[in-house]
Amino acid sequence: MLRLGALGFGGPVALVGYMHRDLVERRNWISEADYKEGLALAQLAPGPLAAQLAIYLGYVHYRIVGATLAGLAFVMPSFLMVVALGWAYQRFGGLPWMQAVFYGVGAAVIGIIAMSARKLTIKSVGKDKLLWAIYLLLALVTVVTESEIAWLFVASGVLVWLRRAPPKWAGSGKMNGVALLQLPALSAPLASMDAGILIQIAAFFAEAGAFVFGSGLAIVPFLHAGVVNEHHWLNDKQFVDAVAVAMITPGPVVITVGFIGYLVAGFPGACVAALATFLPCYLFTILPAPYFKKFGKLPGVIAFVDGITAAAIGAITGSVIVIAKRSIFDVPTALVALATAALLWKYTKLPEPVIVAGAALFGLAAFPLIHPM
Predict the structure, then answer these.
(1) 261 burial type by CB count under 10 A (0-12 exposed, 13-18 middle, 19+ buried)
(2) CB 3.0 to 4.6 Å from 304: which of 55, 106, 114, 161, for a disulfide?
(3) Cα dihedral angle (67, 71, 72, 76), rounded to 10 degrees?
């Protein structure tokens, strides 16, 4: 997890693919069933997808200790990187080179996550027609809405469960409805209190971690509304730079909260923002994990997990298109994305950081020529 947090580029889509490749396929530390259970739980609960999956996989063999170490090791490298970039950003008055680097890296990331999504699709969806229907529906919904709708994941799991392993009461017509509780917002009452800036940061980012569903960039609109529009901690340019920092650094995209926290209140602000964001996802993973482990082998639960997994991978595939619209601007970036996918297709063991480094150098060299200031 420490290596993945330090070298894993591509956001949540790529990171969950790396975990499957390294822990399930290559090392055989995690079974396919445990991986699917972890992916389903991570998709059901609010918070960053990749971090939750890392925490669950740490829990599989070593329970709380494993979950805690896996989560810390996964998040810490990228947190330290964004704090260092935050220091440089404030000290040197912005990061003018960032746009050039992101020009190349953002395009390469599309190729990386597209290949990760392809591998997950082949491995988890297979030839099951119902799973394919769910997969395609969720991919389409994600592309159209540019968000991940939590109740659709639950509905997908229930559908496959009732189709494959229906309970005895299913035929009686006495089915209880599934309701998603809309919990009250936390930041509004706390923000109105005469409290220090760190308390406001903790309240806002805890809400972001506890009530925002979806992976990676799904949290960005929520952060923009609070950080720029409501609290006025950053302006639009600073916020865009914060998101770019998260995209050009390895590890979870949500680590942008550390950069934002640093700009607002220095190193204490970065620590509070990161802790408040990731603590809810940690709790939402380890608290239900024992029940996933205990009942995970029941036919009904297996069917439910398969349905959610197909929905999750469909949403991940759709997010490739959503992110591509933000990262592919012209012919050169399209060619970089295609070249990345082709390289990973032909050379399956090619390290992704090598591609990212090459794309960054391309951006630094090409961007000033293609888009002169």
Answers:
(1) buried
(2) 161
(3) 170
At residue 217, the pLDDT reads 54
Q: Check residue 47 and give left, alpha or beta (phi > 0: left; psi -120 to 50: alpha).
A: left
Query: Residues 341, 347, 351, 354: is their CA dihedral positive or negative?
Result: negative
Closest to 51 measured CA to CA, from 86, 80, 81, 8: 8
The answer to whether 23 touches 29, Cβ cutoff 8 Å, is yes
Query: Is pLDDT larger for residue 316 or for residue 180?
Result: 316
Q: What are the structure tokens assigned to 173, written together?
A: 């017509």
Helix (H, G, I), strand (E, B) or coil at 45: coil
Q: How far is CA 264 from CA 92, 232, 233, in A?
A: 16, 10, 6
Asked if 64 and 80 count as a contact pair (C-beta separation under 8 A), the reply is no
CA atoms within 13 A on the CB side of 69: 10
- Sign of the Cα torsion 149, 151, 156, 157 reads positive
Alpha helices in 8-149 (DSSP H): 11-19, 32-44, 49-91, 98-124, 129-145
Which has the closest alpha carbon to 313: 118, 50, 160?
Answer: 118
Residues 6+ apart with CB under 8 A from 319: 13, 113, 142, 148, 215, 216, 217
Residue 74 CA to residue 52 CA, distance in Å, equals 10
User: Is the pLDDT score of 214 beyond 90?
Assistant: no
CA distance 282 to 284: 6
- pTM for the whole thing? 0.65
Q: Which range has the worst mean pLDDT, 88-97, 124-133, 165-174, 217-226?
A: 165-174
Mean pLDDT of the chain: 81
Spatial CA neighbour of 152 closest among 299, 264, 312, 363: 312
- Residue that wins the pLDDT comparison between 75 and 241: 75
Q: What is the CA radius of gyration of the chain?
A: 20
Contact 4, 74 (CB under 8 A): yes
What does the alpha-carbon distance between residue 225 and residue 244 come to, in Å, rounded to a whole number? Answer: 17
Q: Is 73 exposed, middle or buried (0-12, 13-18, 19+ CB in 10 A)?
A: middle
Q: Give the separation between CA 11 and CA 105, rounded to whole angstroms.
A: 12
